[in-house]
Amino acid sequence: MKILIPAVKVGSFETEIHENFGRAEFFAIVDSENNRLSFISNTAKNQSSGAGVAAAQLCVDKEADVVMGYHFGPKAYQALKAAGIKVLDLDQQKLLKEAYNDYKSGELVEAQAGPGAHH
Amino acid sequence: MAQQLSISILSGKGGTGKTTLAVNLALSLTNVQLLDADVEEPNDYLFISPDIKNKEEESVRRLIPEIDAEKCTACRRCVDFCQYNALALILDNVLVFEEVCHSCGGCKIVCPENAIKEKARELGKLRHDKRKNLDFWEGELNTGEEKAVPVIEKLKTKADHNKNIIIDAPPGTSCPSIAAITDTDFTVIVTEATIFGLHDLKMVIEMLNEIKQPFAVVINKAESDSDFLIEDYCNSEGIEILMKIPFSRKIAELYSNALPFVKEIAGWENKFKALAAKIIEEAGKNERNYSN
């Protein structure tokens, strides 16, 4: 499984999760087959509008199976679901390793679409 | 008839008194048109035309793309073209996020397969009521829509330049506010004499200076022990304060009953007429500046 998690910087499993999906600085990519971690820049983060949709497009293009985050706007959520990606909700987790460990132990629940950003 | 004056009423945030000023000023003048362009929350009608929902209505539509899945080859050119991320390519299907679309039509032009057509989507409504001495229009954005500007632009096509025009603009400094005040002769900023009021007033002034729009200030909920907050700032910047509407229980009670206080409290009609005269004078100064 290929898992994408918003991240504040390029780092390690000790790196903090970014609070935002569409405007996250980076995405951490975890391959659950071999626990390997890599990072990509979030090209959507500086878009003047539709950052959530563009970030979802990036996840789709990177062939994510699972995306997790604290909050998903309605359009990003719709795009991710349309691609058949599993969208999981984070809550207390702060570090990438916490999110990944909770994922492996099956503790994460499916996210709901929340309100989008206000313009 | 000679072209009359157009005045926009603006504030840095909601709830400062734009409606109060716009409505009472409009009701003090003759040969006047009031356009409520605060399309996310138009409420001038409460004072002017409470049953406006039963009056003449006009739909505001714009064009958004519709993808013909048969013709689409998922080449992605439309998705890459869209600067607003209104399109996404998901599993070889183009998804359209209609609320984000700016109706530029570019996706249709770049599509090599002629797979994109445009369809109309309603994003708001205009309503009209012709009252004695007052021609009233309002724009309202439909619930869930994000783009206020097309509704405001359509509303402004109703401007009758044989009348004095008052536009109640959306609060703030972003595109909808700018769309509402653009091409008006003069802007009156309503502010409260509070630290928050001053903060938001400064933001609005920065924006107005940026677009070179002439303006002056009216203080609402004015109180003798706090007006200095606004007065000191305006004095130091050379900004005219045209009027103060006092912080008064009577005015608040009338407002809560949708009664324009200009019609209820003696003396205010003349004060608003004097305000209009001052606005004309200020706008005139600006005209001279332009010709120099």
Oligomer: heterodimer
Mean pLDDT of chain A: 93
Give the number of DSSP strands of chain A: 5
Task: Give the CATH H-level superfamily of the largest domain in chain B.
Answer: P-loop containing nucleotide triphosphate hydrolases
Report on the biggest sheet of chain A.
Answer: 5 strands, mixed
**What fold name stands as the CATH topology of the largest domain in chain B?**
Rossmann fold
State the end-to-end CA separation of chain B: 26 Å
What is the tally of beta strands of chain B? 11
Helix content of chain B: 25-40%
DSSP summary: helix tally of chain B: 10
Q: Provide the CATH top-level class of chain A.
A: Alpha Beta
Tell me the CATH topology of chain A: Nucleotidyltransferase, domain 5
Structural class estimated from helices and strands of chain A: alpha/beta
Short précis:
Chain A has helices at 51-61, 74-82, 96-104, and strands at residues 2-7, 26-31, 36-41, 66-69, 86-89. By secondary structure, chain A is of the alpha/beta class.
If you had to describe this structure to a student in words, what would you say it looks like?
Chain B: GO terms for molecular function: ATP binding; iron-sulfur cluster binding; metal ion binding. The complex is a heterodimer of chains A (119) and B (292). Chain A has helices at residues 51-61, 74-82, 96-104, and strands at 2-7, 26-31, 36-41, 66-69, 86-89. With 119 residues, chain A is of the alpha/beta class. Chain A has a five-stranded mixed β-sheet with strand order 3-2-1-4-5, with helices on both faces. In chain A, β2 and β3 (36-41) form a beta hairpin. In chain A, α1 runs parallel beside α2 (74-82). The longest helix of chain A has 11 residues, at 51-61. The mean pLDDT of chain A is 93. Chain B starts with 5 loop residues before the first strand and ends with a helix. Chain A binds chain B through residues 44, 47-51, 53-54, 56-57, 60, 75, 78-79, 82-84, 119, and chain B through 79, 82-86, 88-91, 93, 95, 97, 99-100, 146, 174.
